[in-house]
Predict the structure of DHH/RecJ family phosphoesterase.
Amino acid sequence: MDRLVLGYDAVGTSFVERLARRPGSLVVLVDDDDRAESLREAGIDARRVDTGDVDDVRTVAGDVDSVVVAPAADAVGRVVRTARAAYPDAFLMVCLADGADRAAAAAADRVLDVSRGAGGGFLECAGGDALRTREFRTALRGVDGRLAVLAHDNPDPDAIASAVGLRRLASAFDVEAEACYYGDIGHQENRALVNLFGFDLRNLEDGADLSSFDAVALVDHSRPGVNDGLPPETSIDIVVDHHPPRTPVRAGFVDLRSDVGATCTILTEYFDRFGIEPTESIASGLLYGIRTDTRDFSRGVSAVDFEAAAGLVEAADSDRLRQVESPSVSVDTLETVGTAISAREVTGDVLTSCVGPIADRDTLAQAADRLLSMDGITTTLVFGYTDGTVFVSARSRGIERDLGEILREAFAQIGDAGGHADMAGAQIPVGILTEGATDTDCREVIDDVITDRFFEALGVTPDYGPFIYADGAHGFPD
C-alpha cells in the first residue's frame, strides 16, 4: 500500500479527497463508524478502527510507504505512537490542528501546522516526495558509527553550509558526524562565514587516514576523487547535490536535483520535512549558501530556492551576514586581480588571462568575477598554477554559452572540469601541459595550451594582438 491516513480531524474531508485523487493507493482509518461511512460515500476507502491500537491498525496492511496522522488535537501523542509502532519503517507525517502539542509529534519525520494554512505542503509531502524523505531518513538511521560529511575541495558557502547542515540532521538521528573538506577556505567571504558563525569543519590533508569513519556523505558534489581528496574507489553512503552529473552517481542514497539552484535548498527542505529547527547559525549559513550559488536569485534559481530562503530569513542573523558580505580584501586577491588585468587578452567579448604562479587558488575566481565587469566583456577565463596543478576559473553573463559544458569539453580529457552555465572551473596537472618544456617556457606553454583548448571548445578563433603588456606598451606576441 502507498499511503495510510490515521484520523482526519486536523485536515478535513476536502484534504483527504484531494489526496485520494493523487497517484497511488490510499486508506483512511478513523475511530467513528459515521465518519468512515461518510468518507466511503465520497469514494474513499475508509475503515473504522481503534487508531490507538497497534494491532487494530496493522490489520489494514502489513507494508505501508507513508502514514499521515491527522487526529484531534488531544489525541496526537497516542496516535503518533501507534503509527510509529505499527509501521516503523514508513515515512510518518503529522498534521497538527489548533491547540495540538507539537512535542507530542516528536517521533514524526515531518510535522505540519495545518492551522498556518499548510494545505499545499501537506499534499506535496504526502505524495512522491515522501518516499525520498523516507529513504533519506532510513539512510541516516542506517549509519552504524561515525559519518564523514565531505564538502568539495576549497568549499564555497553552499558546500560549507550544506556540510554543517547535514551534520546537524545526522545528529538528530543520533549519528555522530563531522563536516570535512580538503584544500583551503581561501575566499575572504568564505572564511568570514566560517569564523563569524563558528562553523566547526575539519581540514583534511592529502592521504588523511579516514579509518575512524564508518560512512561517508558527499555534499555539493557527487563523485569520490573528483573535486575532493578521497580515493576514487571510496564507497559512498549518501550524496546530496544540485550539479548535473556527467556519469552515473553511485551511493547508498542519492538526492541529486539539478533543477534547484543550491544544495543548501535541498538541505533546508529536509530540515522542514523532518520537523527540525536549524540553529540561527545554520539557518544563516543555508540562506547565504542559497544566495551566493544563485547570485542573489539571478542565476539558475527555482521556486523551491525562493521558498527555502523565505523560510530561513526569520531564523537567520542578518547583522552577521552583512559582516560576511563586507570582509577585508586580502593582499593575495588584490595582487591576482592586478596581474589578471595586466595580462589580459581580449577576443571579441571574451577575456582570458594567465596570472602565472599563485599563492591562493581562490583568488582566481574573484579575479574572474571582477574582470567580468569590464566594458564589453561577457566571458572571462582566468588561470594560474600552484603545487603542480593549473587552476582555471571562468565566468559569463547575459549570454547562452554553457561554461560548464565548454570547460568539460576543453579540459576533461586532461584533468577535472565542470560547473554551471555561467560559472565553472577546471584543474589540470601541470606536467601534462609542460612535458618537455624548459622552466623558462612553462608559463608560456601553459598559457597557449589552456587558451587554445578553451577557444577551440568555445568555437572562437583567438585574436592574439594587439594586446597590452604589464608596462602599458602595445605589441604583438612572438
About this structure: The CA atoms of residues 261 and 300 lie 5 Å apart. The chain is about 35% helix and 20% strand. The radius of gyration is 27 Å.
